[in-house]
Amino acid sequence: MADHPKAFVTGFPIRHSRSPLIHGYWLKKYGLEGSYQAIEIAPEGFTDFVRSLQNNGYTGGNVTIPHKEMAFALCKKRDSAAEDIGAVNTLWFEDGELWGGNTDAYGFLANLDALGPGWDKGNKALVLGAGGASRAVVYALKQRGFNEIRIVNRTVDRAQALVDRFGHGISAHGWRAIPELLQDATFIVNTTSLGMEGEDDLTFDLSSVNANALLTDIVYVPLETPLLKAARALGLRTVDGLGMLLHQAVPGFKHWFGATPQVTPELRALILADMDRSTHGQSK
Fold first, then answer.
1. Which residues, listed in sequence order, are joined to residue 99 by a DSSP beta bridge?
2. Per residue in 192-234, pLDDT tens?
3. 6 flagged as catalytic
4. Which end of the chain is more exposed for a tag (fewer CB within 10 A), N or C?
């Protein structure tokens, strides 16, 4: 093993990852020895990369697209979130064995708790999209006690697959059902890439939304997506998606470096400044 803990984030591509900035900030803030780097690994090299982690001195790391399902398959031990979501984004070693966890649901909830206290007082959630990210969101909402979760997707079969996966209290709907489902939803979340920089906007009429509802978007570039902007214009409560990225990093840092870091306004400002640089500097 290395003298100091070494961790990483890997994906394909990985160059735009802000995880090294987050973990580097915490290592410096808490005066800890250690390193965290981005490593681009193509899918065909991922299995060998994971199997050689200990030999290369790594205490663990993060896994992002497109490796999360492959990481799940390579771990002998997994936490309950990873088991239920079916994807791993955090790797660490315990007693020489490789563990896989999923911290996306944790990050999702922690962000909402911090910036939208009381967001979970209702029990009817509307989830837009049925991709990989929505699995973590549905898991999180079930953990938090939502007893009615409606999943809307252009392809209803994909939404139905989530119903089959998570069971009771969840229903699948096509995109056309949105106007009706908006009316009594107490919590609305976009898990699609619509509204993301370079993607089509996510646009529909929010005027029928319950005045007490809270809207959030897991997209954070731009920070205020068209959905959140439209909601805010109507006086609805909103929470942006940046905090999910920051909070999901906390459990991994604790596994690798032994300290529980805090998500602070200073860290958020650091990431926002980097986002601003990349928007106005090099193209994304």
1. 77, 92
2. 887 566 666 667 789 999 999 999 999 898 899 989 999 999 9
3. no
4. C
Q: Is the peptide bond before 251 cis (omega within 30 degrees of 0)?
A: no
Contacts of 56 (CB under 8 A, 6+ apart): 6
CA atoms of 143 and 223, how far apart (whole Å): 26
Rounded CA gap, 25 and 147, in Å? 38
CA distance 1 to 34: 12
In terms of phi and psi (left: phi > 0; alpha: psi -120 to 50; beta: otherwise), the region of 83 is alpha
Query: Which candidate, 227, 152, 171, 155, places its Cα nearest to that of 195?
Result: 227
Q: What is the Cα–Cα distance from 207 to 230, expressed in whole angstroms?
A: 9
Q: Specify whether the CB–CB gap between 102 and 87 falls below 8 A.
A: yes
Given the residues 68, 76, 77, 124, the one annotated as active site: 68
